[in-house]
Amino acid sequence: MVDARHGPASDEASPHTVPELATPRLLLRAWRDEDLAPFAAINADARVARHLPRTLTRDESDTLAGLIRQSFARHGVGLWAVERTDLDARPFIGFIGLSIPRFEAHFTPCVELGWRLAPEHWGLGLATEGARVAARHAFEGVGLDAVVAFTVPANAPSRRVMEKIGMRHDPSEDFDHPALPEGDALRRHVLYRLDRARARAAALIG
Ligand SMILES: CC(C)(COP(=O)(O)OP(=O)(O)OC[C@H]1O[C@@H](n2cnc3c(N)ncnc32)[C@H](O)[C@@H]1OP(=O)(O)O)[C@@H](O)C(=O)NCCC(=O)NCCS
Question: What CATH number labels 21-201?
Fold first, then answer.
C-alpha cells in the first residue's frame, strides 16, 4: 500500500487493484481508455484551467491519465475516474481522489486530495460528494492519519470543497509552489489539512 515517505518500491506493474467507491450520484472507478477523449476535452477547457498553469493538449492529457493510472499500480492510491451514475448515459466527468506530490515542501511527503470536473457538472455538490468518500477511503481504506489539499488563493470553488469536507487552513503554512518560477502569478498556494480528529468531527469517519 501507499508509502509517501519512500515512494514506489519498484517500477514493475504491481498487484494493486483499484477499489471502487460509490456515492448517491457518483462512481469513483478505475480509468478506461474511453475516458481519454472526454478527459482531454476537460483539460483543453479554459474554464477548467483558470487556476491551473495552462490548458493541456490531447497528448499531454493522455500522458497525465497515464501517470494517474501508474499511481494506482505503484502506490495503491490515485485520482479515480469519476462517472455520474444518476444520469442514464453515465458520463465520465473528471477525476477526484488521492495523489502523492512529487515536489518537496514543508508538508511533504504527504498524500493530497484533488479534483477536476467538467464545467457542465459544476455547482451541484459533486466534487464535495466525491471528495468525502475519497477522504474516508484515505483514512479507513488506506490507513492514513492525515491528508492535505492545496490550490491558489483565488480558487474559491476548490477552497470551498476543502472547507465543506472539514479541512482546516492555517495561513502560516501557505507556500510557494516549487514547480513554478519566482514571479509566476500562480506560485503562491494555500495549504489545507485534514486529520482523523477533524474527519471524525466532519462525520467523514466514525
Ligand atoms: C473545484 C471543482 C472540482 C469544484 O467542483 P463542484 O462540483 O462545482 O464543487 P461543489 O459543487 O461540490 O462545491 C463548490 C462550492 O464552491 C462554491 N463556488 C463556486 N464558485 C464560486 C466562486 N466564484 N466564489 C466562491 N464560491 C464559489 C459553490 O457555491 C460551492 O459551495 P456551496 O456548496 O457552499 O454553495 C471545479 O470547480 C473544477 O473542476 N475546477 C477546475 C479544476 C480545479 O481548479 N481543480 C482544483 C485544483 S486545486
Answer: 3.40.630.30
Q: Please report the DSSP string for the chain in residue order.
A: ---TTT--S-SS--SPPPP-EE-SSEEEE---GGGHHHHHHHHT-TTGGGGSS----HHHHHHHHHHHHHHHHHHS--EEEEEESSSTT--EEEEEEEE---S--TT-S--EEEEEE-GGGTTSSHHHHHHHHHHHIIIIII--SEEEEEE-TT-HHHHHHHHHTT-EE-GGG-EE-TTS-TT-TT-EEEEEEEEHHHHHHTTS--
Which pTM was predicted? 0.94
Taking the chain (206 residues) in consecutive chunks of 10 residues, what is each chunk's mean pLDDT? 47 70 98 98 98 97 97 95 98 98 97 98 98 98 97 98 98 97 96 98 95
Domain boundaries, the chain: 21-201
Q: Name which residue sits closest to atom 11 of ligand 1, judged by CA.
A: 125
Among protein residues, the one with the nearest Cα to ligand 1's atom 41 is 48
Residues with Cβ within 6 A of ligand 1? Answer: 48, 51, 115-117, 122-128, 151, 155-158, 160-161
**In testing the pocket of ligand 1, which one of 23, 93, 95, 115 has its CB within 8 Å of the most ligand atoms?**
115
